[in-house]
Amino acid sequence: MMPKAQILKELVPVTARGEATRRKLLSAAEEEFGGKGFHAASVSSITTRAGVGQGTFYLYFHSKEEIFVTLVRDIGRKLRKQMLLATGDAADRLEAERYSLQGFLEFTQKHPGLYRIVQEAQFVDEAVFREYYERLAKGYSEGLSEAVRRGEIGPGDAEARAWALMGIGHFLGMHWCLWQGKLPERQVIDDVMKMVSHGLAMPTRAATA
């Protein structure tokens, strides 16, 4: 059965004050779902953390499932935006990869519930779980394809590369940001980028002969 979040019309605030309350509820939901998990969290625990009445919750969301799905999408948008902004000053694609990775890790550090929330989405709403990663991969693939056209990196399957690079960031974030509660040292990023650079570099004449 489809989750209610996909069936019912989205409740959209019409005032700045309403949007501020909605953001407060989403922030509280991130802490609750990230700390307790989907099933242990409740509407009442979210509203208590947000400092609003339980009746107020239903002015913005129909159910716990809906705010969870909304949260996953909201986290995805914020992450993609931060990674894009992080690459703004990059001179080329390889430098952009470094900045993008750093942007992802910094986001993960600021959002410790990220991994738990996204992974639980697989069991709450699988379509939203897949959407989270597929939207991230789509933007990544487009950037890599454009870099090939500009001659900044060697030719290759942009989609496969995107998923592979996402995997690198995913597990670096898990090992350092989630489990150790800190950003990786500069040397770690340097070593990772050496590996990425060799994988994405333009082929030499000897290699293509």
Concise summary:
This protein is mainly α and 209 residues long.
Task: Note down, in words, how this protein is organized.
This protein has 209 residues and is mainly alpha-helical. The chain has one domain (4-196): Tetracycline Repressor, domain 2 (Orthogonal Bundle), CATH 1.10.357. 73% of the residues lie in helices and 0% in strands. It is built from 11 helices and no strands. The chain has helices at residues 4-7, 16-36, 43-50, 54-57, 64-86, 93-110, 114-124, 126-149, 158-178, 186-200, 205-208. Helix 2 crosses helix 7 (114-124) and helix 5 (64-86) runs antiparallel to helix 6. The longest helix is centred in the middle third of the chain and has 24 residues, at 126-149. It is elongated and about 70 Å long. The mean pLDDT is 92.
Looking at the overall shape, the CATH architecture is Orthogonal Bundle
Compressed to H and E, one letter per element, the order equals HHHHHHHHHHH
Which spans have pLDDT < 50 for at least 5 consecutive residues? none
For the terminal residues, how far apart are their CA atoms?
A: 57 Å
Provide the gyration radius in Å: 20 Å
Strand content: under 5%
Count the DSSP helices. Answer: 11
State the share of residues found in helices, binned by percent: over 70%
Structural class: mainly alpha
Give the domain tally: 1
Major pleated sheet: none
Count the E strands: 0
In CATH, the topology is named Tetracycline Repressor, domain 2
Q: Mean pLDDT, rounded to whole units?
A: 92
Q: CATH-wise, what's the superfamily?
A: Tetracycline Repressor, domain 2
Give the overall shape.
Answer: elongated
The CATH class designation is Mainly Alpha
